[in-house]
């Protein structure tokens, strides 16, 4: 092994001598490079190879190349690149080849080699890398697309890109993304040939030796790709994707027409088809020049275009009366309503249209829960409070078991300060199962705190503890404790804390809240603090290091504290804490002892 390493280091000597001779590196730097290279070589020649060693070696060589590049720019020397950079590049490619040969499944390693080849313009080497990588990772369409794009855009070889796409489709005959990119490539090829032909014609050159097929110039190859894909890939999303690609090229009108006809014939019942057809009306109208039109005229034209869109949507919800179709219609209306405009008339029209569509969808019983929420928000923003109450009631009739819907309705009633809030809360609790009702109870008690008397609010808190699930009651206990302290005082909250401690579960914040309350008292008693800490440690002592440290700090800093108890608390913590928490506790305790915590 040593002989091999010595040989590899000797192979470096010519390039290092050149670096020193031309003044890019000093003799001291050359010796440092040799030492580092020797250490890295030993690591990659071991019997048990590690991927990290190869990555570190490659990174070192790349950094060396970057440094040489900067030094060349600084002193203005651009010769001897074959003797210096070429040698280093060859070594990096060799390292990448060894690494990818050893760890073939690591895609990131292959991509790093690809990126390196692109950075240093190693086209011949990159072609080999793609060939080897695709032979091993033929199951990844994204890699085929990357290779084909490089052939098309960098090497300007449409034939090679086409060959790669055809090979990829043998492995992935039903991959939509592959077909989309192949379709795009053929259109790019046609556009490139059209430009070439135009330039030759402008230069009045003889086109006899160049064979420009009219079919290829008109995108016939892309049409063949599309027809083949349409037979294998079902779904309106693919049709819309290829249509959006075709629209990027100005010679594809016939192709766009064919795709559109196929879309309407095969997917007439799909909401996305109708959504596209409706939104297309906006684009068709915007093709006309609008340079010298007034703002008022622009707003009028926009209103007309939107009316045409809505006419298509109205036809759509008649032909495909589904929840998804109404969602597309409403989404369009909301998008238009949220667009900024200086025309108040246009904005009002958009609002009226949107509210009208919401109402029609509701009458058809095809409005989703999320859309009811958007409808309500729109009504509240538009100060239509009575209508908002009516809609929220209708939403809870349709989704009577949904906590979110009831919460939405109650928030509306609370916001409008209605008299029937309590009745609505009772109705909500009756309809919704106990699990998941926490948002309703928190909303109810928060409302009660600001509206009802203390007795009613306390009764509500007591009721919520029994009505919610044990896990949800934890939050209610925290809120109850806080409310009692604010409204009933210290003695009441202490009594309540003792009472609540009889029923698990608890949260850490529940105990911390009580500790904080005790510390806020003028006569803060260490005896009480110990009781609260001990209760908290029984529940969370095995999983929380900070609780133990806070207890120790309390004994050290409180006037009634006993510092001699700290040793006992430390010993208990070491016994009770689990896993890595012991080490975490020891390090924090050491910092505490040295005054750094």
From TrEMBL:
Subcellular location: Nucleus, Nucleolus
Domain spans labelled U3 small nucleolar RNA-associated protein 6 homolog C-terminal: 307-577
InterPro entries with a match to the protein in the record: HAT, TPR-like_helical_dom_sf, Utp6, UTP6_C, UTP6_N
Molecular functions per Gene Ontology: snoRNA binding
Source organism of this protein record: Prunella himalayana
Pfam families per the UniProt record, alphabetical: U3_assoc_6, UTP6_C
Chief place of localization: nucleus
PANTHER family documented for this protein: HEPATOCELLULAR CARCINOMA-ASSOCIATED ANTIGEN 66, U3 SMALL NUCLEOLAR RNA-ASSOCIATED PROTEIN 6 HOMOLOG
GO CC list: Pwp2p-containing subcomplex of 90S preribosome; small-subunit processome
Chain ranges of the U3 small nucleolar RNA-associated protein 6 N-terminal domain: 9-91
Superkingdom, taxonomy of origin: Eukaryota
GO annotation (BP), single: maturation of SSU-rRNA from tricistronic rRNA transcript (SSU-rRNA, 5.8S rRNA, LSU-rRNA)
Homology family: Belongs to the UTP6 family.
Protein keywords: Nucleus, Repeat, rRNA processing
Protein name from the UniProt record: UTP6 protein
């Amino acid at each position: 092994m040593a002989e091999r390493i010595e040989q590899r280091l000797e192979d470096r000597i010519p390039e290092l001598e050149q670096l020193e001779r031309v003044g890019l590196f000093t003799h001291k730097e050359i010796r440092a490079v040799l030492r580092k290279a020797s250490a890295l070589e030993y690591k990659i020649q071991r019997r048990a190879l590690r991927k990290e060693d190869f990555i570190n070696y490659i990174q070192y060589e790349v950094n060396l190349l970057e440094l040489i590049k900067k030094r060349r720019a600084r002193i203005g020397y651009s010769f001897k690149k074959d003797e210096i950079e070429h040698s280093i590049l060859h070594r990096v490619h060799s390292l990448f080849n060894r690494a990818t040969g050893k760890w073939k499944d690591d895609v990131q390693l292959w991509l790093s080699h690809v990126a390196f080849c692109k950075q240093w313009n190693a086209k011949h080497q990159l072609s080999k890398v793609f060939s080897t990588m695709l032979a091993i990772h033929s199951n990844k369409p994204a890699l085929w697309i990357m290779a084909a794009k490089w052939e098309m855009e960098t090497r300007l070889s449409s034939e090679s890109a086409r060959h790669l796409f055809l090979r990829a489709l043998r492995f992935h005959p039903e991959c939509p993304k592959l077909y989309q990119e192949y379709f795009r490539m053929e259109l790019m090829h046609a556009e490139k040939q059209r430009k070439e032909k135009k330039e030759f014609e402008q230069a009045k050159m003889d086109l006899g030796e160049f064979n420009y097929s009219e079919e290829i110039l008109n995108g016939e190859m892309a049409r063949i790709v599309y027809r083949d894909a349409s037979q294998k890939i079902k779904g309106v999303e693919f049709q819309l994707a290829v249509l959006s690609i075709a629209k990027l090229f100005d010679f594809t009108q016939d192709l766009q027409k064919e795709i559109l006809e196929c879309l309407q014939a095969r997917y007439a019942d799909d909401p996305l088809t109708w959504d596209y057809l409706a939104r297309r009306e906006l684009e068709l109208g915007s093709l006309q020049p609008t340079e010298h039109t007034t703002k008022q005229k622009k707003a009028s034209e926009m209103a007309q275009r939107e009316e045409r869109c809505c006419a298509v949507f109205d036809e759509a919800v008649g032909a495909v009366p589904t929840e998804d179709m109404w969602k597309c219609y409403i989404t369009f209306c909301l998008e238009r309503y949220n667009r900024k405009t200086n025309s108040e008339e246009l904005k009002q029209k958009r609002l009226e249209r949107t509210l009208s569509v919401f109402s029609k969808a509701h009458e058809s019983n095809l409005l989703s829960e999320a859309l009811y929420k958007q409808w309500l928000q729109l009504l509240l923003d538009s100060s239509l409070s009575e209508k908002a109450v009516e809609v929220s009631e209708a939403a809870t009739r349709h989704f009577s078991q949904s906590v979110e819907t009831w919460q939405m309705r109650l928030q509306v009633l609370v916001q409008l300060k209605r008299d029937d809030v309590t009745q609505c809360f009772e109705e909500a609790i009756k309809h919704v199962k106990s699990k998941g009702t926490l948002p309703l109870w928190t909303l109810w008690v928060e409302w009660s705190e600001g509206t009802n008397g203390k007795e009613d609010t306390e009764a509500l808190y007591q009721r919520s503890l029994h009505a919610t699930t044990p896990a949800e009651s934890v939050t209610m206990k925290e809120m109850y404790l806080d409310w009692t302290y604010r409204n009933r005082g210290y003695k009441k909250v202490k009594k309540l804390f003792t009472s609540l401690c009889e029923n698990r579960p608890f949260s850490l914040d529940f105990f911390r809240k009580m500790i904080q309350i005790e510390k806020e008292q003028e006569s803060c008693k260490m005896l009480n603090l110990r009781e609260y800490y001990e209760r908290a440690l029984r529940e969370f002592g095995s999983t929380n290091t900070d609780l133990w440290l806070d207890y120790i700090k309390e004994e050290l800093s409180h006037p009634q504290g006993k510092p001699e108890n700290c040793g006992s608390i430390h010993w208990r913590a070491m016994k009770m804490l689990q896993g890595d928490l012991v080490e975490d506790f020891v390090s924090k305790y050491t910092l505490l002892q040295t005054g750094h915590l």
